[in-house]
Amino acid sequence: MAKSFTLASMVLVGSLGLAGCSSTQWSTNYADVIDPAVAKAWRVVDVDVSVPRSLTVSEANTFAPDADIVWREFPYGNRYEQVDAIITTAAKRGAAGLTGTRDVKLMITMQQFHALSEKTRAVLQNSGVHDITFTAQVFDVATNTPLSPPDLIKADLIAFVGDQAVAAEKQGLTQKVRITNHVAAVIAGWLGTGPDVRGDFKRNGR
């Protein structure tokens, strides 16, 4: 009984701590800067993702690490390169629906990639958000002319924690898989080749 009480106390304190220092309003959002009728003539042949070294990285195992990049699902290593690989894969998948004849390049600059710490993912219930923000712009490959303005894109996603995270892992729905799928859908929506996935949600997170 004492052990159960201790765990319950940890969850309560963690939830209150997360709620006290985190946002509750989140969104997937982007502006309508690309005309689908124009974009259908494009073919994305290159994706260039930049993860600026000015972004801060945290390895602190706290409920809400104060950093731009928090990524723990891969072994400890170069988090900038790991984020680059995830977003590059997602962007290529999201742009795959463009099969036109004009070769274009997609330029992405990361501003935020805040997934979950180990403690948040293991202990909390009904909290946690993948906080992802970047700018994206399309360029003509032949002339390097910008075909769209740099657009700020929010791709926030409800994160799975606690029992839900364990169940998701058993189905292969890792953080990487869910984030990749979501960002790909956001890119497709922004380019006009997929459904509009914009929307807001409320959740204690980060």
Overview of the molecule:
The protein is α+β, with helices and mostly antiparallel strands. The protein has one domain. It contains 6 helices and 8 strands; from the N terminus they run αβαββαβαβββααβ. The chain has helices at 2-21, 36-39, 79-95, 118-123, 162-170, 175-191; strands spanning 25-29, 42-50, 69-70, 102-114, 129-140, 151-155, 157-158, 199-202. Strands 1, 2, 3, 4, 5, 6, 7 and 8 form an 8-stranded mixed beta sheet that branches. Helix 3 links the parallel strand 3 and strand 4. It is globular and about 50 Å long. The relative contact order is 0.23. Residues 1-21 have low confidence and may be disordered.
Question: What structural category characterises the helix and strand content?
Answer: alpha+beta
Strand fraction band? 25-35%
Question: How many angstroms separate the termini?
Answer: 31 Å
Number of extended strands: 8
Number of helices: 6
How many structural domains does the protein architecture include?
1
String of helices and strands: HEHEEHEHEEEHHE
Estimate the mean pLDDT confidence: 90
Rg computed from alpha carbons, rounded to a whole number of angstroms: 18 Å
Uncertain runs are: 1-21
The gross shape turns out to be globular
Largest beta sheet, briefly? 8 strands, mixed
